[in-house]
Design a protein that fits this description.
alpha+beta, 10 helices, Heat Shock Protein 90, five-stranded mixed sheet, Helix Hairpins, five-stranded antiparallel sheet
C-alpha cells in the first residue's frame, strides 16, 4: 500500500471494496486512501496522503483533535454523518472509523459513503411533509369552518319547516363532511412511520371490522403473527379496505372478507392479504383504483384506496391488487416486517 507496508493483493482487495477506504496515523494524517475515497472528493490519492484529517473534515477541530483521536479504545468503531471538503468539492458522507493497533502502533481505519442522494430525498420528504401540513391546515380550518356554519343554518331552517329540499341540502353537507375528513386523512397518513411497534394483525383486523358498518358480511382472520406497524394507521388501512369490499359486495348482500398471511413462494412470511369473495375488480382497472378521487360507487369519496396506498407506503410496504381465489378482490401487502 502507498505509504504503508502491505502486499499488492491486499491493496487490490481494498480497491475492490467499492467504498472509500482510508488509513490514518496516530497524528490524524492520511497514510493511505484508495481510489474510491479520492474520487469521491474529486482528487487523486497522492493529493490526500500526508494531509491532516481536519483539513478534509471541518467538523473536527484541530485544537481538540488529539484528545478525540486518543479517546478511541482499541477495536472501537464509531459512525458519524458529516461533510468532507477538498479543493472546492464538498460531499455529505457517512463515516465508519475503527482503531486498531498493529505491532504496537495505533492506526485508525475508516470508510466513507456518499449520502448526497439520501440527503436530497430527506430534504424532499421534509418539503412534502410541510406541504401536507399546510394542506391539512387548509382542510381542517378553511373548509370545516364554513361547513359547520352551513350545517348550523340548516338546523335553524329545519326548526321552521321540514322539506325534501332541506333533506337534500343536509345529505350534501354530510357528504362534504365525509369528503373533508377523507382529504384530511389522506394528507396526514402519508407521513412516514418512524417508530413502528409490534401489533397483532388478527387483533387490529378484528378491531377494524367491529368499527365499520359491514351489514351481513362475514369476517375471518387467519393469522396470529405480530407485525411492526403503527396500530392506528394499520386499523385505518383495514377499515378502508372493509368499506371498499362492502360497497362493492355481491348483489344479494352475502360477502366474506378474509385477512391472512402471505404464504406462497418467495412472499412467504413477507406480508399479509385482505381478500373478499365479491365481484372483484377488472384487471384493466386495478392500477387506477389507488388514484385519489377514483370511485365506482355513488356513495364513495374516491379517497379510500388512495389512503390505503398512502398508509402502506408510509410503512415502507408495497400494495398490489389481484384477484382472490373466489374471484373477488385481493389486496397483498409485501415488505412487511414481522416480529420473531
Amino acid at each position: 500500500m502507498a505509504g504503508e507496508s502491505g502486499s499488492a493483493f491486499s491493496e487490490e482487495m481494498v480497491e475492490a471494496v467499492g467504498v472509500g477506504v482510508a488509513i490514518y496515523g496516530g497524528d490524524g494524517r492520511y497514510r493511505y486512501v484508495n481510489d474510491a475515497y479520492a474520487d469521491l472528493l474529486g482528487t487523486d490519492r497522492e493529493a490526500l496522503v500526508g494531509r491532516a484529517l481536519w483539513d478534509v473534515n471541518p467538523s473536527l477541530e484541530r485544537e481538540r483533535f488529539a484528545d478525540y483521536w486518543a479517546s478511541f479504545a482499541d477495536g472501537e468503531t464509531r459512525t458519524a454523518e458529516t461533510e468532507h471538503e477538498f479543493a472546492g468539492t464538498c460531499v455529505p458522507v457517512t463515516t465508519v472509523t475503527t482503531r486498531r493497533s498493529i505491532d504496537g502502533t495505533p492506526y485508525h481505519f475508516g470508510t466513507i459513503r456518499d449520502i448526497t442522494e439520501r440527503r436530497a430525498r430527506e430534504r424532499e420528504l421534509e418539503r412534502q411533509n410541510e406541504r401536507l401540513d399546510s394542506f391539512a391546515g387548509i382542510v381542517s380550518h378553511d373548509l370545516r369552518n364554513p361547513l359547520g356554519v352551513a350545517k348550523a343554518y340548516l338546523d335553524i331552517a329545519r326548526e321552521e319547516r321540514e322539506s325534501a329540499e332541506l333533506d337534500m341540502v343536509g345529505s350534501a353537507l354530510d357528504r362534504m363532511e365525509i369528503l373533508v375528513g377523507d382529504l384530511l386523512t389522506l394528507a396526514r397518513k402519508g407521513v412516514a412511520v418512524e417508530d413502528p411497534e409490534p401489533v397483532s394483525l388478527r387483533g387490529v383486523a378484528t378491531a377494524a371490522w367491529r368499527s365499520v358498518d359491514t351489514g351481513e358480511a362475514a369476517f375471518e382472520a387467519t393469522t396470529d403473527r405480530l407485525l411492526l406497524a403503527s396500530e392506528s394507521r394499520l386499523q385505518q388501512l383495514l377499515e378502508n379496505l372493509y368499506r371498499n369490499a362492502v360497497e362493492h359486495g355481491s348483489a344479494d348482500g352475502s360477502l366474506t372478507v378474509r385477512v391472512g398471511p402471505l404464504e406462497a413462494g418467495a412472499d412467504a412470511g413477507a406480508g399479509f392479504y385482505v381478500a373478499d369473495d365479491g365481484p372483484g375488480i377488472p384487471a384493466e382497472d386495478r392500477d387506477a383504483v389507488f388514484a385519489a378521487g377514483e370511485t365506482t360507487h355513488e356513495d364513495g369519496t374516491g379517497f379510500g384506496l388512495a389512503i390505503v396506498k398512502g398508509i402502506a407506503e408510509a410503512h415502507g410496504w408495497t400494495v398490489e391488487l389481484t384477484e382472490s381465489a373466489a374471484g373477488g378482490a385481493r389486496f397483498e401487502f409485501t415488505g412487511v416486517a414481522f416480529e420473531g
